[in-house]
Specification:
The protein has 947 residues and is of the alpha/beta class. The chain is built from 40 helices and 26 strands. The protein has 5 domains: 147 residues, Rossmann fold (3-Layer(aba) Sandwich), CATH 3.40.50.300; 97 residues, no CATH class; 194 residues, Rossmann fold, CATH 3.40.50.300; 171 residues, no CATH class; 302 residues, no CATH class. Strands 10-15-9-16-17-8-18 form a 7-stranded parallel β-sheet, sandwiched between helices. Strands 20-21-22-23-24-25 form a 6-stranded mixed β-sheet, with helices on both faces. Strands 2-1-5-6-7 form a 5-stranded parallel β-sheet, sandwiched between helices. The longest helix is centred in the last third of the chain and has 30 residues.
Length: 947
């Protein structure tokens, strides 16, 4: 029988005639719902229900005080702090960095009835001892300020609690403390026939005093939920608290100690699986394998030790589960609307950094992040009037501008609610709050309209917006009452504070269907079937970290909570949850990441070692899954078979011609070739905030073409080269204006990169002078033959249907020059060129080794140029601006000598081209992903391939 069912039987047996005068106090409200259910099932008649409280509600009932929210408490504490410190007080923004820690310490000290005067005296003395230095007894000003702060904590506490009590509210600890002080008065005035406490384990000292006083007065009874297994063995931390109460409270009866672990059958399966998504998928798979009535039963619970798993778990629930009850709320800070407003805060925080007193400027990345948010996409698509967004974003991406003036943005915005977002003054946060409210109204109206027209399910988004509008109202009220928010940074912290504590409830039938809950919500509840996730060390139990000003030794001395007590609490929740369960799945994350250590919880090790010895009817299985089931079955490889339509597209492409870069793309990754040349999927254009390598290369090519163009068909001399130096800087600026429009090259990294371009070209000209000097010594000259020379030819290749057709090969050669009697095909490279990229031992390597793309490109250029002019002395190579001292770097192929390409090599190149093109046409060669992750790293299509 479940604990709450036993409790109802006991209460009915003892107090059926006085049920309306009975008060039942449980650890949480959730347990109260189940208790009412069992009560109605047992009596099956209309009655006056007993009054059922959670312990927190009961304490508030005793005192008449309300629990204030965390943000309001911070504002009240700041008013006390500022009054005490006067001109020396920090700003509210700085105050918020440490005030939450102080509130936690105030709460912990009160809820455990600590002598606060003594506590803060201890703390101050401890800090003074830490600073004491016998060799230098004098304190610095900083050290004096440090000690003054700790000396003031007691003073703040007294004034703060007095203020809260005047307002008839308080933080949890203060209200519990006041309840313990009023408990004797409550006993004399209370009309309850009996107060029944049930399902408790670890009590704070204020709770202990309240319950013990009521028990000893005869006004109350208490029912424990424990088992002999962990209660009688002092080695088990799960029984620490209840053992203490049994030994110290002197109760005549100690109800109830059960023996479920010794007598019941249990089937426990423990599974380790990588990553949180793997845990969620496994949970879904386990549920899908249950019988429908079991999976949809309120006797089945999916318990999340890490509540961040809620959303992936919900996506993993199989469709066969029709009834789900989610007992936890979804944090507003994880919502889409929260991310929107955080983008807005970032926009304005950065604007403050980059703006002057005269001009307000906004950072282009912040603009793009804001307008690319899903809600702005929804607004943009609502009607033709809002189609401005796409065009605006494209113009921002193409411009390469880093900053935009407020007026430049608002002039393109058609909706006043959106324009208002770009006019904010730090001195008037209410203006921004007003614009937030208008934006929420615009989004809400758009969602409601879309819901009516297209039957879109936007209920949860509308719920998010409602909760955020409540936050806006609360913040505005705080501004009006306290007047402490004067800048965007503080406003953001306040919003984040509210959003982190606010949760959006899931509405449903609370006592029907699969129960999804957090660990604390399982208190006093029992389930036949349990799936428990994230049973990892530092999650269950939680880590030792404690956000406090009070050191461990003082906490222990003053009976404040420590990590050791928290471990006992987590242990109790774990063992109590398994106590009456029959079928149990325990899942933990094997992967070391930011969400968990990858180490299974010590509780798993304990039950594996002890439970089978304690009861042979408890069966435990352990297993490790390397991949989640769905991922294991999933084949990520993308293969595109060549359909009739695709083959026709290849023929069309062949008519236009293949470039060396296209052929190299096919060799490195045929799927990329398909995306780029067959489907013509364009790369996503992003604003180039800093000049990229491709743009730098384009500018260098542009400048060299401008400098050398007048010498085409002529010999070039040292005086010609020297004249070029005076034009370099002007041409570099012109080049960047051409290839980096609207980009700013006058400041920051871009200025440095423009200087690099000038340096590259100047160094190149210096190397040309030295090269000509060396040529002159051997009575040779340098002549510029062609610049940016377009060459094309054709090769005969077999198509998919066996037909042999001429296929065009084409390309642009950066430079063709003549040194003595030798023509040189030159490709400029601003990047690093390695020796092994220009040398190969076998012609087959050009198909198999993707690092030889430069070699193939040069040989194709030489092949095209030779086809056009039928030359004997022809060489092909690279001039690398990173290795100018090495000069001309020729391609070295099998059997080559003297850097001159042999006519037989051209035959080989033609053979390679024919083979490559026939492979592209072949039906048997589907387009496939490369296996080389280095190629995928910088590929524009890696998101499509999920690489």
């Amino acid at each position: 029988m479940k604990f709450l069912e036993q409790l109802i039987e006991q209460i009915i047996s003892n107090y059926e005639e006085h049920l309306q005068d009975v008060c039942i106090v449980l650890p949480n409200r959730r347990a109260g719902l189940y208790l009412k259910k069992y009560l109605s099932q047992k009596l099956k008649k209309v009655i006056w229900s007993p009054l059922i409280f959670s312990i927190e509600d009961f304490v508030c009932h005793i005192t008449g005080l309300e629990i204030a929210d965390q943000i309001t408490l911070l504002f009240d504490l700041f008013s006390i702090y500022k009054k005490a410190e006067g001109k020396n007080a920090q700003s509210f923004d700085e105050f918020m960095n440490w005030a939450s820690v102080l509130l936690n310490d105030y709460n912990d000290s009160d809820i455990n009835l600590a002598d606060t005067e003594k506590l803060f005296q201890y703390l101050n003395e401890a800090k003074a001892i830490n600073l004491w230095n016998p060799e230098n007894p004098s304190l610095t000003d900083h050290e004096k300020s440090y000690l003054d702060f700790f000396n003031s904590l007691g003073k703040y506490y007294k004034s703060f609690t007095d203020l809260l009590l005047e307002k008839n509210c308080g933080y949890q600890g203060l209200i519990y403390k006041k309840a313990s002080e009023k408990i004797d008065d409550f006993i004399t005035t209370s009309t309850f026939h009996k107060i029944i406490f049930a399902g408790f384990n670890a009590l704070t000292l204020s709770e202990e005093k309240i319950i013990k006083t009521l028990l000893h007065s005869g006004k109350a009874e208490i029912y424990w939920d424990t088992d002999n297994y962990y209660l009688e063995n002092k080695m088990y931390e799960a029984g620490d608290f209840i053992r203490k109460y049994r030994n110290e409270w002197g109760l005549k009866e100690f109800n109830w100690i059960e023996n479920n672990y010794a007598t019941s059958e249990k089937n426990i399966i423990i599974t380790g699986i990588p990553l949180n998504i793997g845990q969620a998928e496994l949970a879904g798979q386990i549920i899908s394998e249950m019988k429908s009535d079991v999976a949809n039963s309120e006797n089945t619970a999916l318990v999340l030790a890490d509540e961040n798993l809620l959303i992936p778990v919900l996506y993993s629930i199989p469709e066969t589960v029709k009834d789900i009850n989610i007992t936890m709320g979804y944090p507003l800070s994880n919502s889409t609307v929260h991310s929107l407003f955080m983008n807005l805060f970032t926009l304005h925080e950065n604007s403050k950094k980059y703006s002057s007193n005269i001009t307000q400027r906004f950072y282009q990345k912040d603009i793009l992040n804001l307008f690319n948010h899903p809600y702005f996409r929804i607004i943009s698509n609502k009607d033709k009037k809002s189609a401005w967004l796409t065009g605006f974003l494209e113009s921002v991406k193409r411009s390469n501008r880093i900053f935009y003036k407020s007026s430049e943005i608002t002039s393109q915005l058609k909706d006043p609610a959106i324009s208002a977002l770009f006019s904010y003054s730090d001195n008037d946060p209410s203006t921004l709050l007003s614009s937030f409210s208008s934006l929420i109204g615009l989004i809400r109206d758009t969602l409601i309209s879309g819901k009516k027209k297209e039957k879109q399910n936007s209920d949860i988004d509308i719920e998010y917006l409602f909760h955020y509008s409540v936050i806006i109202t609360k913040v505005q009220n705080l501004i009006n009452e306290y007047g402490l928010i004067h800048d965007i940074k503080t406003l953001r912290k306040i919003f984040s504070g509210f959003a982190e504590t606010a949760t959006i409830p899931f509405y449903g039938e609370p006592l029907k269907g699969l129960q999804i809950m957090g660990m604390l919500e399982t208190r006093a509840l029992d389930f036949d079937n349990i799936i428990l996730l994230s049973v990892n060390e530092n999650i269950l139990p939680a880590g030792k970290f404690s956000n406090t000003f009070v050191p461990y030794d003082i906490r222990k001395e003053m009976n404040l909570s420590t990590y050791r007590q928290k471990e006992s609490i987590f242990a109790y929740h774990f063992y109590r949850l398994l106590q009456r369960a029959k079928n149990i799945h325990i899942i933990y994350n094997t992967e070391s990441d930011s969400f968990g250590s990858g180490e299974k919880s010590r509780f798993i090790t304990q039950i594996c070692e002890e439970l089978p010895k304690y009861n042979n009817k408890i069966n435990i299985q352990q297993k490790i899954i390397i991949q989640s089931s769905s991922l294991a079955q999933k084949n990520d490889t993308i293969i595109v078979e060549k359909t009739k339509e695709i083959l026709n597209d290849i023929e069309s492409l062949a008519e236009k011609g293949f470039s060396p870069s296209a052929l190299n793309t096919y060799i490195s990754c045929s799927l990329k070739f398909y995306f780029q040349y067959i489907e013509k999927i364009e790369e996503t254009e992003e604003t180039a905030e800093t000049i990229d390598a491709a743009t730098l290369g384009s500018v260098v090519h542009f400048v060299l073409h401008e400098l050398y163009n007048e010498f085409t068909g002529k010999n070039i001399t040292i005086p010609d080269i020297k004249k070029m130096f005076g034009h370099v800087e002007t041409l570099v600026k012109k080049g960047f204006k051409e290839y980096y429009p609207d980009g700013d090259i006058e400041v920051g990294k871009n200025l440095l990169i423009s200087k690099v371009a000038i340096k590259f070209i100047s160094n190149f000209l210096q190397s040309e002078i030295k090269f000509i000097e060396d040529l002159n010594k051997s009575n040779k000259t340098l002549a510029i033959v062609k610049l940016e020379e377009y060459s094309e030819s054709s090769v005969n290749a077999k198509t998919h249907n066996g037909k042999v057709i001429p296929v065009k090969i084409k390309g642009f050669i950066d430079r063709v020059d003549k040194v003595g009697e030798t023509l040189r095909i030159i490709d400029y490279k601003t990047g690093i060129v390695k020796k092994e990229e220009l040398k190969f031992e076998s012609w087959e390597d050009l198909f198999n080794n993707t690092t030889l793309s430069k070699s193939l490109q040069l040989l194709i250029y030489a092949f095209l140029y030779n086809k056009k002019f039928s030359l004997n002395d022809l060489s092909a190579g690279i001039i690398s601006f990173r290795s100018l001292s090495k000069g001309f770097l020729p391609v070295v192929y099998p059997g080559s000598s003297d850097n001159i390409i042999d006519p037989s090599a051209f035959a080989k190149v033609e053979e390679i081209l024919e083979t490559l093109i026939e492979s592209i046409f072949s039906k048997d060669n589907a387009f496939k992903q490369t296996d080389d992750p280095a190629i995928c790293k910088n590929c524009a299509y890696n998101l499509i391939c999920n690489k």
